[in-house]
Fold this sequence. Notes:
It is a single chain. This protein has 6 helices and no strands. By secondary structure, the protein is mainly α. Helix 1 (5-27) runs antiparallel to helix 2 (33-54), helix 3 runs antiparallel to helix 4 and helix 4 (93-116) runs antiparallel to helix 5 (120-143). The protein is globular.
Amino acid sequence: xxxxxxTIIILIMIGNLLTGGFIFAYIFKKQNIESKxxxxxxxxxxxxxxxxxLLRDTGMPEIFTYLFANIFMIxxxxxxxxxxxxxxxxxxxxxxLAHFIFTSIIGLAMIITYFWFNTINNRVFLFAIASxxxxxxxPIVFLTRKDRSVLEIVxxxxxxxxxxxxxxxxxxxxxxxYVLD
Length: 181
């Protein structure tokens, strides 16, 4: 039995929205409005990005299915990290500014890559590096604190595994061990 790509993406979108709803319901009673808004934005942007990815090869212009999908997904990763860190009311000052500046630079780099260096390997490399750096923010914040919870440690380990995956993927496409077409 095999599952086609469209089915996988639809299941990811549904799972994304459901987990987003469950987690939002969990944090709803907490007073931190900024976390709630960031989390909802993250889940909406992720779902929109998955929708654009789903619409690839349907005749929709590539600017939506590649560029906007990647920018929305990176923005979603940024907002999700923001929401997670802000639950502990730690997302402020220099960390917040650095997060926004880095995300803006990545967005600009994605636009430049799309219009001037548009190969699949270049897009995947840039996305993987950007994701690795953005996913690294919560573990850095949580693991450097003395009063971290077990859940924060587990979450940080999962994020660090994702960072390793993104870095391996970026090296693979950069060194062209695996050429995408």
